């Protein structure tokens, strides 16, 4: 990541697979606890030392695989409550997304669209008032796009691209 994007990246993840993937793409993996509070505390503590953070929340995936809709909602609401604290650090960009959809009804990974929230001072507002697969895909300002484009969008919104597009 540092070679391609000229960033100093760090990963905050308790699940071993994501820690390993982060190492493979050149991120420094930071030690953290297993709770959302631990992970956000690790981010805040290390915020001055890095210019890119990958923070993975495993609980939503586990709750979906267990078919526990209420727990999944509770975890998402817990993450939502931490976002103002994250925004108070004044990052150039915040991206909230999933690596796949895990509907509790299906108790597993699915093919459904993944909601994406991209926040920066350069974002144009849209009419979406909820963070859900259907709302983001049908009415969101980003629409539907391949996940491979998310870093380009994030870098553009951080004004870290020389040129966007052709």
UniProtKB/TrEMBL annotation:
All residue ranges annotated as the Metalloenzyme domain in the record: 3-156
Function: Catalyzes the interconversion of 2-phosphoglycerate and 3-phosphoglycerate.
Family classification: Belongs to the BPG-independent phosphoglycerate mutase family. A-PGAM subfamily.
SUPFAM superfamilies in alphabetical order: Alkaline phosphatase-like
Catalysed reactions, semicolon-separated: (2R)-2-phosphoglycerate = (2R)-3-phosphoglycerate
Record-given protein name: Metalloenzyme domain-containing protein
Native source organism of the sequence: marine sediment metagenome
Gene Ontology biological-process entries: glycolytic process
UniProt cross-references to InterPro entries, sorted A to Z: Alkaline_phosphatase_core_sf, Metalloenzyme, Pglycerate_mutase_ApgM
Keywords: Glycolysis
Pathway: Carbohydrate degradation
UniProt keyword annotation of Oxidoreductase present: no
Gene Ontology terms for molecular function: metal ion binding; phosphoglycerate mutase activity
């Amino acid at each position: 990541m540092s070679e391609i994007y000229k960033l100093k990246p760090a990963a905050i993840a308790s699940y071993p697979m994501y820690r390993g993937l982060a190492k493979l793409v050149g991120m420094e993996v930071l030690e953290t606890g297993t709770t959302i509070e631990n992970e956000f505390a690790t981010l805040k503590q290390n915020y001055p030392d890095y210019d890119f953070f990958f923070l993975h929340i495993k609980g939503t995936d586990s709750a979906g695989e267990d078919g526990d809709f209420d727990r999944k909602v509770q975890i998402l609401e817990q993450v939502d409550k931490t976002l103002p604290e994250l925004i108070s650090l004044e990052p150039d960009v915040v991206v909230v997304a999933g690596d796949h959809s895990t509907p509790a009804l299906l108790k597993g990974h699915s093919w459904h669209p993944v909601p994406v929230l991209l926040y920066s001072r350069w974002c144009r507002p849209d009419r979406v008032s909820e963070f859900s697969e259907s709302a983001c895909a049908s009415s969101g300002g980003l629409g539907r796009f391949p996940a491979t484009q998310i870093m380009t969008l994030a870098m553009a919104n951080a004004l870290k691209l020389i040129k966007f597009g052709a």
